[in-house]
Amino acid sequence: MHPVDIQITYDFICPWCWIGYRNLKTAIGRMSTEVAPAISYVPYELNPAMPLEGADRKAYRTAKFGSWARSQAMDVEVAMMGRRAGLDFNYDLITVTPNTRLAHQLMAFAQQTGGAAMVEALFDAIFAAYFSRGEHIGLIDVLVPLAVSAGFDAQAVQDHLSGTDGEAQVEVAQAKAQREGGRSVPTIRIGNAVIAGAQPPSIMGKALQAGVAEAI
Fold first, then answer.
1. Residues facing residue 115 across a β-bridge
2. Which helix H or strand E contains 210, and what residues bound it?
3. Contact partners, residue 216, CB within 8 Å, separation at least 6
4. Nearest to 9 by CA among 213, 181, 185
5. Chain centroid to CA 68: how far?
6. Cβ neighbour number for residue 178 with a 10 Å cutoff
7. Cis status, amide bond into 186, omega within 30 of 0
8. What is the pLDDT of residues 61-112, one digit of tens each?
9. Which of the four CATH numbers 3.40.30.10, 3.40.630.10, 3.30.390.50, 3.30.160.270 does domain 2-215 have?
10. Residue 97 forms beta bridges with which residues?
11. How far is CA 30 from the centre of its chain?
């Protein structure tokens, strides 16, 4: 197996980030005997000025896209693409568009303190909590149980999210992503290849093959 560095630039309110991630995991699974992925997760807040309590999703999306009907049509398209990737999007359960800063702080903490499997489980769990169950992932009381389900210590997570140390880490990581040319999510860097958007597993697979060739 050959190590391949993978960097995922994402935001937890971006459905295409979850779909792109799942497509990546599918591609990795198809090459499980060849690729030893080393995945890092880079935050990119789509709504950095979002109030900490979040915003009413219907009002927010109506203002953003001009009408609630247009927003719903977009949600239908996303849900269809999600099903193809094996994901459940239940937009009827989502009432709040959250501020994602705390979720990003949690991911930074996870990458510093947990193993790769724990970090991946948490990443997937936060997306599922929001898009499948409509949970408010901008709240500490929601994020702590998600972290515990991935194997992290509840008190350690509570203490980290209750403080301010993690904010600077998120800001530094976002600034670095922007300096490197990141302007949208998802952006997935596989070895030397940069993939924009939720590309299918076949595209991810070609990049992984190239990454393996680079590692040889």
1. none
2. helix 201-215
3. 2
4. 185
5. 25
6. 12
7. yes
8. 999 999 999 999 999 999 999 999 999 999 999 999 999 999 999 999 999 9
9. 3.40.30.10
10. 55
11. 21
Q: What is the pTM of this model?
A: 0.95
What token pair was written down for 162? Answer: 């209750």
E strand intervals along the chain: 2-10, 35-43, 55-56, 96-97, 187-190, 193-196
For the segment 99-129, what is each residue's pLDDT rounded down to a tens digit?
Answer: 999 999 999 999 999 999 999 999 999 999 9
Which tens digit of pLDDT belongs to each residue from 166-181?
888 888 888 887 777 6
**DSSP summary character for residue 174:** H
User: What ranges in 7-115 are assigned the alpha helix state H?
Assistant: 15-30, 57-65, 68-84, 101-113
Q: Closest by alpha carbon to 170, among 9, 7, 5, 6?
A: 9
- 3-class DSSP state for residue 55? strand
Select from 181, 123, 125 the least CA-distant residue to 149.
Answer: 125
Are the CB atoms for 42 and 6 separated by under 8 Å? no
175 or 55, greater pLDDT: 55
Task: Say how many CA atoms lie within 13 Å of 163 toward its Cβ.
Answer: 11
| Cα→Cα distances 164→99, 168, 213, Å | 15, 8, 42
